[in-house]
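Batch 3, record 17
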Amino acid sequence: MLRFEFQIRLAGILSHILDVSEQVESIEIDNALPVTDGGVFLFLTVKFDDTVSETDIAGQLPDMDVVNVSQAAVNSQMYYLCVVTELANVSVLSLLTDQQAIPHRIVGEDSQLSVVASVRDWNHLKTVANTIEDEHGSLELIGTTQTESVGFPLGGDKIKQSMSGKLSDAQLEVLEMAYQMGYFKVPQEVTAEEIANELDISRSTLSERLRRVEHNFCALLFGPRQ
Amino acid sequence: MTTIIIIKSVDQEPTVREVLESVVDGDDTVCFLRLPTVRCLGSLVQAVNPMINYGVDYTINCLPEGYDTADLVEFAIDVDANRICIGISEKTLTGKARIDDLTQSILLHDDISGDVVVGDHAIILEELDYDG
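Prediction for the assembled complex:
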């Protein structure tokens, strides 16, 4: 199989949401579920350049059927948005699936739609690219790689969403600080002592919080499904 | 088997090495097809000289000024190429081989098809079929 990345001009509902507010930095389709009469439930991750309230967001999208808005636990400028719209408003998604290509990532940013999708082979790539060019005018191939497996369709942000509410603010703080300072890099760029000093907590508190984070991650991976 | 290696720049030693080492067989023909912007292959040929296989026929050709993809496909048909190898000069942030305009125009050209293999330094279009 071939996985390829391409860009097209932004269109449809993602373009609409980006146009509504200058504060919207990017918007990604996490999932899409069909509903009756050609509609689709769209699950989106919207990144703002500043903190905004859930009411502001719903207020800025009065002509849209917004089902739910919730703030991401890991980033106060990121929101998960669920809307119902026509499938035609996400034409790139429907074109890909109509052509039996697997969409992995669809992100709108800077008036461009960046898409990662898997196709069977070169001929399939040509068919998919031609179909998208017919609908969207032009398409720019960005990159390609070979892959043995289909991979995970959409929802690259799933881990972040699944972790929502699973970590306390204190645990998130130590995890983010440890990550930002390079604690998890190989070789390690910082010691636990240095992170503890930065956060003004004891080394044992830091250690305990990091262990709880690890436990919660493992529970998510290996624990019972909830 | 005939293999075309498209030379977009003389810095493509890794591409040529990968193709000569992993793709080309002992009794193949290899056509170095340089773009008109590449003036001289001397340093590149010198760099890969130790890998020269005396069972392989090597030729050097040049695409005309103002060429388009049809010229390239026509050349591939003329030499009955089984493979076209295009250098990967850059990777994307996610590790994919970056596709430049030339590669895109070949990949999406109507008259050529086959299999795509993505190596470390080269995109190899093989089992080529030509229409038109």
